TrEMBL record:
It comes from Aquimarina spongiae. The keyword Transcription does not apply. Keywords: Kinase, Membrane, Phosphoprotein, Transferase, Transmembrane, Transmembrane helix. This is histidine kinase. Its EC number is 2.7.13.3. Gene3D superfamilies: 1.10.287.130, Histidine kinase-like ATPase, C-terminal domain. It catalyses: ATP + protein L-histidine = ADP + protein N-phospho-L-histidine. It comes from the Bacteria.
């Protein structure tokens, strides 16, 4: 993959991730604002319901007076107790009264000072004729049109009874029992499953304030005011509340989790795609590096064989047997090298296809390792040394001699090429396993190379140089063979040495 194309894909994936995050953050913010407004509305309704219920209960115990003025819609509210059938205020004169049921009586009275008509709810009143003024009072109470007002006594009594029992009439009081209001608010909030910390503040028409939970009122961010029509003019009842974020979070937990899963899924898929693209890019680089190295490795023996044949043909006119033998041996060695490289490539293809079958036989592991050490000692330079150590004389194991010996030779050969001058091979026998270590004092690899050293075709990058032979197949082949013998291989690094450690089952 071209570097420019890879950058374009990287920028595109990054942009998609950022846009996805931005959309989800915006969606959650708008959802939070909508839920916040919904919570305020629900608290508002709960407060109004509590106020209505408060006045409803209050109306059941008190006489309710509606002072009706000639201007439509203008009313003055007053409240007085009824005791033993008498009106508590001396200014009121009874015009008419009637009995609705055994426990509820309605009386029509007139205020001698204001010449206004009133409705009185109280005990022990007798049923008499209902006067015409009741129709006007009923009009103001129900806000109906004139043609919808009942024209007979029974209908008027029924409507007035309902209005009184539901406390639709207004009640005049300079103060409220906030404790009772608080109980009713708690009941309403619990019914709506709203869990908030709140405080209440009532302000009467004279500006005097009464509060519950003053600390919450001082620190609260959100508040709402009762819109109940039963509150006296110029008075107000406010509710201040906190911890609304927790309440909103609980209500929107499902949506938040869904949003999180969606974002995580999109980002996860894009990152997985980026990982695959990156792996393909690395494989392409490995392929190019492999082709370059194979070309170099094959050119050397081919050039040597060509030179030997040319020498036999052009420079051996005397048919010197010694020269001919020398050139033939040179060509034979190079052909053997070519054959070895071809076999390694074919072996790698076999390992990939899982067609490789081991021919296990019982052999002495110590003998195989000693042979491998001696074979490699004959090929190293004078400044390098290989030592062998074991804590047992003879150890019989079931192995494929050919492949296992090649695997060990690959590790030792790797230490000779990449390691330091001192190479140490050690065998340790324990009760349940055998440990083989190939240690050298060369420069340690980085963590990145350590994790990839057993990957197929992987070679430690050295630019476009070919001073180290090989295709990056040896350690991949070794790892596969060891694992087919039910063993493990790992690379251990420290500041002073590199250690390839093999563990095999004992028995």
């Amino acid at each position: 993959m071209r570097k420019r194309n890879y950058k374009i894909i990287l920028y595109f994936i990054t942009s998609v991730i950022l846009i996805t995050l931005g959309i989800q953050v915006y969606w959650n913010y708008k959802n939070y604002q909508a839920s916040k407004q919904q919570l305020i509305n629900e608290v508002q309704i709960s407060l109004d319901n509590a106020v209505d219920e408060y006045f409803t209960e209050l109306a059941k115990e008190n006489a309710v007076f509606i002072m009706h003025d000639t201007m439509i819609g203008k009313t003055v509210r007053n409240l007085h107790k009824m005791e033993k059938g008498f009106i508590a205020h001396s200014n009121f004169k009874r015009i008419d009264s009637f009995k609705i049921n055994e426990s509820t009586k309605i009386s029509i009275v007139k205020d001698s000072n204001t010449q206004s008509i009133h409705i009185v709810k109280g005990p022990d009143l007798t049923k008499d004729q209902v006067v015409q003024q009741q129709k006007d009072i009923l009009l103001h109470l129900t806000q109906r049109q004139e043609d919808s007002i009942p024209q007979n006594q029974d209908s008027i009594i029924k409507v007035l009874s309902g209005l009184a029992s539901k406390a639709i009439v207004s009640i005049t009081q300079d103060s409220l029992k906030l404790g009772k209001i608080n109980e009713l608010v708690q009941k309403e909030l619990h019914r709506k499953n709203i869990n908030i910390d709140y405080g209440l503040r009532f302000t009467n028409p004279f500006g005097e304030k009464t509060e519950i939970d003053e600390n919450i009122i001082k620190t609260a961010v959100l508040q709402t005011k009762s819109k109940s029509s039963f509150l006296r003019r110029l008075s107000s009842l406010e509710l201040f509340f906190t911890n609304e974020r927790l309440t909103i979070f609980k209500k929107n937990l499902g949506g938040i989790l869904l949003s999180f899963v969606l974002v995580a899924s999109v980002i996860g898929c894009l990152l997985f795609l980026l990982r695959i693209i990156n792996q393909q890019k690395q494989l392409a680089e490995l392929k190019n590096d492999l082709i370059s190295n194979i070309t170099h490795e094959f050119k050397t023996p081919i050039a040597t064989i060509s030179a030997a044949l040319e020498a036999i043909q052009n420079f051996n006119t005397n048919n010197d047997p010694e020269k001919t033998k020398k050139y033939v041996e040179m060509s034979s060695n190079q052909l053997g090298r070519l054959n070895t490289m071809v076999e390694k490539i074919l072996e790698t293809a076999t390992l990939d296809s899982e067609e490789l079958q081991l021919k296990l036989e019982e052999m002495d592991l110590i003998t195989i390792l000693k042979t491998a050490v001696e074979k490699n000692m004959a090929t190293i330079s004078e400044e390098k040394t290989i030592t062998f150590e074991t804590n047992t004389e003879k150890t019989m194991v079931n192995i494929d001699v050919f492949h296992f010996e090649n695997a060990i030779n690959n590790i030792i050969d790797n230490a000779i090429k990449y390691g330091g001058n001192r190479i140490h091979v050690a065998v340790k026998k324990a009760k349940n396993n055998l440990t083989i270590e190939v240690i050298d004092d060369g420069i340690s690899l980085s963590k990145i190379h350590k994790e990839k050293i057993f990957d197929k075709f992987y070679r430690v990058p050295k630019g476009n140089t070919h001073d180290v032979k090989g295709f990056g197949i040896g350690l991949f082949y070794t790892k596969t063979i060891i694992e087919k013998h039910r063993g493990t291989i790992q690379l251990l690094l420290d500041n002073n040495q590199t250690n390839f450690k093999i563990n095999l089952p004992n028995g």
